[in-house]
Amino acid sequence: MSVVTRFAPSPTGALHIGSARTALFNWLYARGRGGKFLLRIEDTDKARSTDENRQAILDGMTWLGLDWDGEPSSQAANATRHAAVAHELLAKGAAYKCFSTQDEIEAFREMARAAKTSTLFRSPWRDVAEADHPDAPYVIRIKAPREGQKTLQDQVQGDVTWSNDQLDDMILLRSDGTPVYMLAVVVDDHDMGVTHVIRGDDHLANAFRQNLIYEAMGWDKPTLAHIPLIFGPDGKKLSKRHGATGAAEYQALGYPAAGMRNYLTRLGWSHGDDEFFSDAQAREWFDLNGIGKSPARFDFKKLENICGQHMAVAADAALLQELQGFLAATGADPLTEAQKSGLSKAMYCLKERAKTFPELIDKAHFILTDRPIEPEEKAANHLTDVSRGILAELTPQLQNASWSRDILEGIVASTAEAHDMKLGKLAGPLRAALAGRAVSPSMFDMMLVLGQDETIARLQDAAD
Question: Which of 144, 220, 372, 417 has its Cβ near the most Cβ atoms within 10 Å?
């Protein structure tokens, strides 16, 4: 059987990071088995669904590198098919017309609350013959069993049992002829050939209600896997009070996509003690039995650590491209060709200790700034009369030097020795002259990246 998974977000808001993890799990499961990963936009809530939110979902998925098969489908566009299934269930006798009004339903519930009995509505129209139906608006309800219990097998939660007397005859079709979400989900999953439904465990109760439709229609049921939600560090559901919650926010904060994929995969799923792994390893290793039953806690320090490891091993060209995407996402000015060239040369000495793109940009300040360099206060303190004199002495030696690391280290070391000082003592003035910062990449790395002419020009500026 070919695996088909789906991600079905509602475009009523930004792509939540928890939803992004759900999409990632579906993507990994399908891609690791040569299957299909489908994207369905559940846009039946006309009042809250917007094109802007839909695009934000697509952008978030694209940033995370979660490619889908075919075009994204629209649930709302399939409403005619949903309604047809409701009428088919009606014809089978698995559903019925209910003429109860909202006032009557609320009156029933008020009486139930007063009597302290179940407020689960039991329609009086369930067994009324068609000949006795009034000429009035009606909804179509499914006939749920009222006795016994049902057990569903879940790949994460195990066997879950539900008493049938807790199921209502849920509405399939509203009185205006529009289908409800619960019906639409089942029909779409069936029609799309979905074999595995991997979603949040907040949908577990829905699975029992949706199962009624599968059974009444005689359709094959998909394998279920309900994954726990993501909690914040305090053990409560992840929300704005914990920090960023939307995928777009994490991109704007400068986390690399590969690091996010790694961290989100590991958040609630495990493969032995492995913490850092590649996309290829994740696709190969990921399975449903590795998902835990307990909610995972989001840890920003672990996220940064994983992201730092991915930045360190990333290909320079790919990192530069993603950096440009980060700048675009934050509305920053695009890089000039000269800056791109400089960053390409410097990436080897920038990415080793950067965990996010803002950190990488900060380390790349010496490339992104122009002469004359205005040193920060802490860096300027290193530019004394003595150190400026040494920089002036160093400049002519560099003018005739071969521009290699060994030669540069030798020239600077001999200059320091001539002034009876350790090499480290010259680092401060050189950093101030080349980057205007007290903290920067190695002074020799900066000299190699900047090149001979620019290095000498900056040293002369500082010496003067």
Answer: 144
Q: In order along the chain (464 residues), what is the average pLDDT of each group of 10 residues? A: 94 90 98 98 87 93 96 96 98 98 94 91 95 96 96 97 94 96 97 98 95 98 96 81 82 96 96 96 97 93 97 97 96 95 96 95 95 92 92 92 94 91 90 94 95 95 90
Tokens for 416, please give them.
């320091």
**Bond into 9 cis (ω within 30):** no
Is 240 an active-site residue?
Answer: yes
CATH of domain 4-74+231-304: 3.40.50.620
- Is 36 known to sit in a ligand binding site? no
Q: Which residues are CB-neighbours of 131 under 8 A, at least 6 positions away? A: none
What are the residues whose beta carbons fall under 8 Å from the beta carbon of 11, sequence distance 6 or more? 41, 42, 43, 49, 50, 51, 53, 54, 56, 57
The number of residues making up the chain comes to 464
Both tokens of 10, joined, read 């509602």
Q: CA torsion 354→359→364→366, rounded to 10°?
A: -130
Question: Do the beta carbons of residue 2 and residue 12 sit within 8 Å?
Answer: no
Find out if CATH 1.10.10.350 is the number for domain 377-463: yes
Q: What angle do CA 99, 100, 102 make, to 5 degrees?
A: 130
Instruction: Dig out the tokens for 103 from the structure.
Output: 């006032």
**Which is catalytic among the residues 240, 293, 378, 422?**
240
